[in-house]
Design a protein that fits this description.
The protein is mainly beta and 249 residues long. Helices cover 5% and strands 47% of the residues. A hairpin with a 6-residue loop joins strand 17 and strand 18.
Length: 249
Amino acid sequence: MKKFLVAFSFFLSLAALAQDGIVITLDGQTVDISGGTHQMTAPSNAVFDVPFEVVNNTGQTHQWVVTRLKVNVPTGWADGLCWGHGTDPFGGTCFSSTQMVGNPWSTPGSQSVLFNIADGEYGKMKPQINPDDFTSGQAHYRYYLSDLGSGYSDSVDLIIDFVATVKPIKEDVTVSIVPNPASDYINITVNGMENGTLKMVDILGNVVYKDVIVNSKSIATSNFKTGVYFVTIDAPGSKSISRKVIIRH
C-alpha cells in the first residue's frame, strides 16, 4: 500500500496545476491559461519561440523556478528555454537543449539565475522548440512554477503539431531520340525535368544546333550532312546527358 501511495502522489505532482494569484498568458494576450493548454501548429521545421508571461498577483514576492516536463515528445525533437524578469531587456537566462538534460528538468536554483518577482510584476518564460525535420507528430510539454524548495504552484501545457515536409523523389532524367538513324527530322523527348538546354554537334565538335527544350523538341535534319552527331542536354541540378544520332540521306 505504501508503494501505491508514493506512486499516486508522484502522479499527482506531475498533473497540470493552477493556483489563484498566478496568471499565465501568451505574450501580448490577456486570456489566463494557467493550469490549461496552448496548442498550436509548428510554423516550420526551424526552431521557433513560444513566449509566455507569468504574472504574480499573489500578494507577495516570489523567486520562481521553472520545471520543464516532456509529457510526450517525438524522437529527434529538441527544446530550449529562456526565463527572466519582465523588465529584463535580454529576455533572462537562456538554456539550450544540451543543458536541459533529464526529464523533468528545472532552471538552476543559484542566485545568478533566481530573481525576485514582486506582487504585480511578471516573468518572461520562452520555450524554444525545434522539431525534427523528418519526424511528423505531436509534442506535449508542461512547464511548472515553484518556489525554491517548495512544491509546484502552477503550470501550463504546450502542445505542438508538426507535419514534416516530404521532399518529392526526383525522377531519373531519360532522353528518347527517334528516328535514329534519321533523314529529314528527329524528335527528342525528355522525361524527369521541366526544362533544359539542348546542343547538337557534329563529329568534329562544331555546334550545328542549339535551343531550349521543354519536354520535347523536333529538329529538321534534311540540311545536315550525312554522318554522326551528338545531342547533349543540360538541366539544372542534373548531369549532362549525351546521345549519338546518325543522319543518313
